[in-house]
Write a structure and sequence with these properties.
Helices cover 44% and strands 17% of the residues. It has nine helices and twelve strands. The strands form three sheets. The chain has an eight-stranded parallel beta barrel. Helix 4 packs across helix 5. The model has no long low-confidence stretch (mean pLDDT 90).
């Protein structure tokens, strides 16, 4: 497959590595997986048997890290000690790229949820400055993820305009979560394809896809606890049509099915990527004929 050149050097379909999957994945082994991803907060400082298991995986697969606690929108100071530990961890395990959420999760202590940042010019400046500082300390360009959110406190601009402004001002990358676009499009009543078309393709480092829970006809909760549904697969297909077969990770955080069911979903990702790779090759052949 002719993968597009993305800022994080991974390819194909990936899987979020959770501790519940360590044993099954170690036993079965799936060399077709392009990469794995972990939350570094769950592994920094872990030694003993678990630490050795983790090292065996990082020596076998390319890895990305997706953080939980950078809290880019928080009024609290950045946690410099965490950032230094994080840089050492990323270097030690040859992690190919690091991302966190375009949200906040702390205010005089850690919260239990990823809270939405107000869509304001002031927030753009604040968050971009914190991203700049985090990138400086980490010694690498990072990606921020478009989050699912359930309230927009006093917005001055749209979600799309806010994301684009932060990306431009901080010169960071985008972790494009396709499921979150779908969730927000239902909850906040906008067209997901228009939203997708408005994002800067050149900043997409990789993508996430996941399942969610329907609370009501007009309310979806992003849970990462179910299989990916058809509308999200269709939106991922549309993303590949625009961006090419960008590396894409399947997230699953609980309600784990047998590992083979998760691998089947990663194979769906691979099939969609391969189809768009073939279409791109046909287009190239036609243009040079």
């Amino acid at each position: 497959m002719n993968q597009p050149q993305t800022p994080f050097p991974v390819n194909g379909a990936g899987l979020g590595l959770r501790r519940a999957l360590l044993g099954p994945l170690q036993t079965a082994g799936y060399p077709e997986l392009g990469f794995l991803e972990v939350a570094p907060e769950n592994w920094i400082g872990v030694g003993g048997k678990l630490g050795r298991q983790f090292r065996a995986f990082t020596e076998r697969y390319p890895f990305l890290c997706h953080g939980l606690s950078l809290s880019l929108g928080s009024p609290d100071p950045l946690d410099m000690e965490f950032l230094r530990q994080l840089r050492a961890f990323l270097d030690e395990h040859d992690i190919r790229g690091y991302s966190d959420h375009l949200s906040y999760c702390s205010e005089q202590g850690h919260l239990y949820d990823l809270m939405p940042i107000p869509f304001t010019e002031e927030a753009v400046d604040w968050v971009a400055g914190r991203i700049d500082r985090a990138q400086e300390v980490l010694g690498r360009r990072i990606a921020v993820e478009n989050i699912s959110y359930y309230a927009a406190p006093e917005p001055e601009m749209s979600e799309l305009a806010f994301i684009n402004a932060v990306l431009e001002k901080s010169d960071c990358l985008l972790l494009l979560d396709v499921n979150n676009i779908h969730v927000n499009s239902v909850n906040h009543r906008y067209d997901p394809l228009t939203f997708l078309a408005g994002l800067p393709a050149e900043r997409v480092a990789y993508m996430h896809v996941a399942g969610h829970h329907h609370e009501a006809e007009d309310l979806i909760v992003d849970t990462h606890g179910a299989a990916v549904i058809d509308p999200v697969w269709s939106l991922l297909d549309a993303a590949y049509a625009r961006l090419g077969p960008v590396p894409t990770l399947l997230e699953r955080d609980f309600n784990f099915p047998p590992l083979e069911e998760l691998i089947a979903e990663t194979r769906t990702i691979s099939r969609l990527q391969a189809r768009h790779d073939k279409q791109a090759l046909r287009s190239e052949s036609t243009s040079t004929a």
